[in-house]
Specification:
Layout lengths: L1 E9 L1 H5 L1 H10 L13 E5 L7 E5 L6 H5 L2 E7 L2 H18 L5 H4 L5 E3 L3
Parallel strand pairs: 1-4
Antiparallel strand pairs: 1-5, 2-3, 2-4
Amino acid sequence: MIFWYEDLYMDDSVRKHEERCRKTIEKRSVWQKLPWKKSYYIITLAKNSKNLFEIMGTDEMFFRYYGYTDIYIVGVAREYDSAVEILIKILTKGYQKSSDYDPRDEFTKECFHAGKE
């Protein structure tokens, strides 16, 4: 199931069409892999406890594995470089507040809500 962060981070091109973007991501079908379909890059909470976040393309989401696992989406971007910029913004903002900043404390699973699946 897909869970969305309450205050989702987005780049400008995604922000213009937020609802359409969310619907596209939630579909997760093999058709999303077609070259004329829009794909996005999502920033998720990491599955590995040693990492903080993962950046992955939505065209990977049609694999069966993602249908059985929970995905906690923190941010969405149209291009990979924009996703990296969003991630830098998240971490910079946190470390400016406090040098003891830990993203795991801010992005708890209670801060997410379920998608429309």
